[in-house]
Amino acid sequence: MKSVYIRGNASLYGEVTIQGSKNAALPIMAAALLVPGVCVLENCPRISDVECMCRILESIGCGVVRKGRQIRIDAASLTGSRLPGEYVARMRSSVMLMGPLLGRLGEVSLCHPGGCVIGDRPIDMHIRALSRMGASCRDDGSLLFASSCGLRGTLIRLDYPSVGATENVIMAAVLADGVTCLENCAQEPEIARLCEFLTCCGASIARKGPGRLMIRGQSRLRPCVYTIPADRIVAGTYLCACLAAGGEVFLRGAPAGENDALEKTAERMGAGLERTPAGLLVRRTGSLLSPGEVTTGSFPSFPTDLQSPLLAAMAQAEGESRLKETVFNGRFGVAEELNRMGAGITVEKDLARIPGGRKLTGRRVRARELRGGAALVVAGLCARGDTLVENRGYVDRGYEDICRDLRLLGASVQEG
Ligand code: UD1
């Protein structure tokens, strides 16, 4: 079992370059299926979820060539629409292949997608939206089948701005017959990146106000070269690490305007932030203060993916903090492990109360999902003594090399 070993009580000083974004790369890789030719994606993060997506694409007949951080995807001759259970069960994002495969081949079948254990993750909105576009979907309990004799554009209003459902509809709509008007859709930066990529391929997508997209279907898309942007969640995790451990770090390439909710929270907690064209300078040399209450939500609210790393920082702030989780109903699992380190967090339904003012103690703890695992590494940096985070595999799903990055910031962190 892979793990991370962290020597605690460290302040962070140094510079790290932020890797390419997982949540931008995965849907864009899925969207490459819509293009009968070779798309070249630069700056793809070297993480296990991207590897998993490469294997899925290969299994349905795509040519996939990876050279460093460049991935070339040749979807000219797709041979199948049945997604391999072994990989689909590992990764939630495989559901995003439904839209492009329906668009390109008119059919898709897959087992129920897996992913991190952070609460219920139904796909009813995906199914309802694709059905409205003319797909017939059948679920026999273990396998999902969807087929269509040609998707058609229509008006779709999502019940909730789901990121994945928004991406699926966009990908289904770019080759559909007619115009799709998508309302109450997600506005996360990764949606804009997917639209950018598809527009480079010749898709017609217009933003008609907040949460509203108009997509005019085309008969064919063309290949393009696209660079995956920096990962706002990785940048945010390292910002939380500096907040928790103290010090001064430069996050090279940290995207501007994508982490405003976190940056405002960090300033309330006593951090000094300086934005330069090259990245973000984070300084926390004085006391760490409670930010009061923070509530997660869809963009531009505080991102649920940074809730756990912030929880680790809040554990040591002066005064009580509260964290309200409104996106996933099972995302406080990490509190139990943080409590083993002395955080004293109490969770009631969607609200965590963090008493603060605690000096965490290094322990052997266990990651149970991606962002919670990263939060335990953050906690380990500022704990008294040494921490061993087991199940590093979860963290590797989203972080290229968290040990390398934190060592660049001066921490004593080893992989085991
Ligand atoms: C994506 C991100 C994930 C992030 C999340 C919210 C990727 C690969 N993953 O996940 O990192 O935490 O957005 O920002 O980009 N829901 C339904 N029915 C559906 C779909 C969603 O009820 O059909 C619910 C979910 O259970 C959840 C909420 O909507 O409570 C948000 O989910 P969604 O935005 O779809 O997240 P993902 O796309 O899975």
Layout of strands and helices, then pairs:
Layout: E1 3-7, E2 12-17, H1 22-31, E3 38-42, H2 48-59, E4 63-67, E5 70-74, H3 85-88, H4 98-105, E6 107-111, H5 124-132, E7 136-139, E8 143-147, E9 155-157, H6 163-173, E10 179-183, H7 189-200, E11 204-207, E12 212-216, E13 225-227, H8 232-245, E14 247-252, H9 260-268, E15 272-276, E16 279-284, E17 293-295, H10 307-314, E18 321-324, H11 333-340, E19 346-348, E20 351-354, E21 364-366, H12 370-382, E22 386-390, H13 392-396, H14 402-408, E23 412-415
Parallel strand pairs: 2-14, 3-13, 9-10, 17-18, 21-22
Antiparallel strand pairs: 1-22, 1-23, 3-5, 4-5, 6-8, 7-8, 10-12, 11-12, 14-16, 15-16, 18-20, 19-20
Helix pairs in contact: 1-2, 1-7, 4-6, 5-6, 6-7, 8-10, 8-12, 10-12, 11-12
The site of uridine-diphosphate-N-acetylglucosamine (UD1) has 22 residues, from helix 1, helix 5 and helix 6.
Written description of the protein model:
Helix 5 (124-132) packs parallel to helix 6 (163-173) and helix 11 runs parallel beside helix 12 (370-382). Helix content is 31%, strand content 25%. The longest helix is centred in the middle third of the chain and has 14 residues, at 232-245. It has a four-stranded mixed sheet. Strands 2-14-16-15 form a four-stranded mixed sheet. The protein has a four-stranded mixed sheet with strand order 4-5-3-13, covered by helices on one side. It is elongated. The mean pLDDT is 95. The N and C termini lie close together (8 Å). It has helices spanning 22-31, 48-59, 85-88, 98-105, 124-132, 163-173, 189-200, 232-245, 260-268, 307-314, 333-340, 370-382, 392-396, 402-408, and strands spanning 3-7, 12-17, 38-42, 63-67, 70-74, 107-111, 136-139, 143-147, 155-157, 179-183, 204-207, 212-216, 225-227, 247-252, 272-276, 279-284, 293-295, 321-324, 346-348, 351-354, 364-366, 386-390, 412-415. With 416 residues, it is an alpha+beta fold. It contains 14 helices and 23 strands. The structure holds uridine-diphosphate-N-acetylglucosamine. Residues 23, 26, 92-93, 120-126, 160, 162-165, 186, 190, 304-305, 327-328 line the site of uridine-diphosphate-N-acetylglucosamine. Uridine-diphosphate-N-acetylglucosamine binds next to helix 1, helix 5 and helix 6.
